[in-house]
Amino acid sequence: MNAQNLASGSAYFIAKETELPVTTVLSVLVDNEPGVLARVIGLFSGRGYNIESLTVSETEHEQHLSRITIVTRGTPHILDQIRHQLERIVPVHRVVDLSVRADELGQSGPIQRELALIKVAGLGEHRNEALRLADAFHAKVTDATTEHFIFEITGKGSKIDQFIAIMKPLGLVEICRTGVAAMNRGPAGM
Amino acid sequence: MKADKQDSDRQPSQRREMTGAEMVVQALIDQGVTDIFGYPGGAVLPIYDELFQQDKINHILVRHEQGAGHAAEGYARSTGKVGVMLVTSGPGATNAVTPLQDALMDSIPLVCISGQVPTSLIGSDAFQECDTVGITRPCTKHNWLVKDVNDLARVLHEAFHVAKTGRPGPVLVDVPKDVQFATGMYTPPDVSPRTSYHPRIQGDIEAIKQAVALMLTAKRPVIYSGGGVINSGNEASKLLRELVELTNFPITSTLMGLGAYPASGKNWLGMLGMHGTYEANMTMHDCDVMLNIGARFDDRITGRISGFSPNSRKIHIDIDPSSINKAVRVDVPVIGDVAHVLEDMIRLLRASSTKPDEKAIDAWWSQIDRWRARKSLSYTRNKDVIMPQYALERLYALTKDRDTYITTEVGQHQMWAAQFYHFEKPNRWMTSGGLGTMGYGLPAALGVQIAHPDSLVIDIAGDASVQMTMQEMSAAVQYEAPIKIFILNNQYMGMVRQWQQLLHGNRLSHSYTEALPDFVKLAEAYGGHGIRCEKPGDLDDAIQEMIDVKKPVLFDCRVANLANCFPMIPSGKAHNEMLLPDEATDDAVANAIDAKGRQLV
Under CATH, what is the fold of the domain A111-182? Predict the structure, then answer.
């Protein structure tokens, strides 16, 4: 369900949303405890917000802190609500809208990277072409037989999308993507 | 107050070894709990065994876990303390879901302790197993599954801290049976809460300065206060009264906020919103500065958002940052606890060299008085049939000078109660506002009566709602809680019928109760006292009888079947488009809502 259709959150009168939706990246620092991811995801599904990508892993082992990176889409008003609603969750320490932060820092946007493993099977010319293109995309061969490659590729989502599209006619078998990891440029921390 | 009686003889507990079940009881004692509401079952037996062997905690046995939850809510709302409920696993926990969500929406501090199957059986579809923390995650402020007995005491103390601080709310602690049996180290209440949880209490002084500056420019101001004032405590209500006195601003309130400012106060406009008074809604619509104190622009308050107070600048005081700009965009948000913010606000107002614009506000008051003259709550009395409004007027007249607490169910009777019962103090009015839970009032009254054994506790009920949790009459009889269930019996789900009349061509689909119980006999069957009243002339004596009987009472007050609750802002309309009783002839009512509004509801 699109969040922008639920602007008023009210069954009483559904106001027309006039703002345009934008895509943003949220970084959420949480206590790594059971159920914390369910709380975050449940908030998004329960309130009708979008999740376009979600990445989570413990980042500070001694303090049991995990960092969740969420790519979401909504009007600025909805994005503001998402941030405040996330902050209400008890094990959430901080929520930073990296895109807004980048604007404040005068930057074009946060650095966003994704890793993908892409399996391609084939023989002859297709196989050579796949390897050649992989080289052009700086994808690494992480596993191979005479019949297949597994490429490891890192970059912006759009680069990976493009790589996948090219591999499709060359014997694409399987795709696994990590989702977006993101951080703002410059010396300051989150 | 009974709830405080054991504070003095409580010993500070020490770190020591005990079982999980003992820890639960010890933690409750250390948190100052004196009364809990619950229902035993397989997965909480060790805790019940501990309860049996002590006398500091008074356990009230309900007849259904939903009743335990609402009773704990009523207890909490009427005392300002945390309400506690204890339920077993599986169905015990699922039955607790409704009161948990109710408490979440109305910001009531509640701790629910639930039993769970032993940790080794979790996930095996064991008997009476359910994913309690999964099911209750969205209907609690926070919840915990405790798998290690050494975490139990800390989690219980944290649960109380989270429930009562910041924006209050319900929490749940799920305790597997093997953890209740296991022995571990008990830790007394800890002063250092978790680092990720830090509600903002003090308001930003710059924002408060802006708010004060805006208030001083106001020519047509209004204060719109809500349940946050009640939750903030008695001090907040005192400061609110002081603020009104100081500024001479008119004040209205949401359903949840009634009593924070006295209904007898000269600046009182009555409740606002869908069934609010004409003067309250018109004042909101035409104001130039709105001061929202601890309310959340709920859709029952605002009506059509685009038509909501279109020409005002808005100040919003709320402890929850997510309430700001959620439904209505405001000009000056102040995040903090109501009492803290009001204290700063009043200090700044007093220190300010400019004063509120007295002349403009006087003119504003004469406009408001003209709206008041519409007498939007008027109704036609009948000498043969009891009008529901009349029943409440008489109930108010005969109980207002007593130490009275009022709870309600949900529907027409609830709105009439809000309109015709007048509250002078906070914490005297317990109702289900956000969730609108039919069946709230009877168990809530039980909870209030347990906290205030010598007070007069009345549930203003409807004949449909009251049957949803009627079984708690049995609990009331068991604990000699003389709650008075004043049923405005019109044989309909009155609000459903009213909406069907207004929105669905008067096709009264399943809103009529063909077979009502005989409430008098029902009361007697429970061991309570039953009263039926059918004539206006008999009403006063009957109400007096209800007050005098020292037993739970079911009062079957037969009222006009088809009365509608007015004023009413129909779906999709703004505050200045109310239906008023004198305009509400059948034709006017039928044509009031266009097809588009019908879909909105």
Answer: Alpha-Beta Plaits (3.30.70)
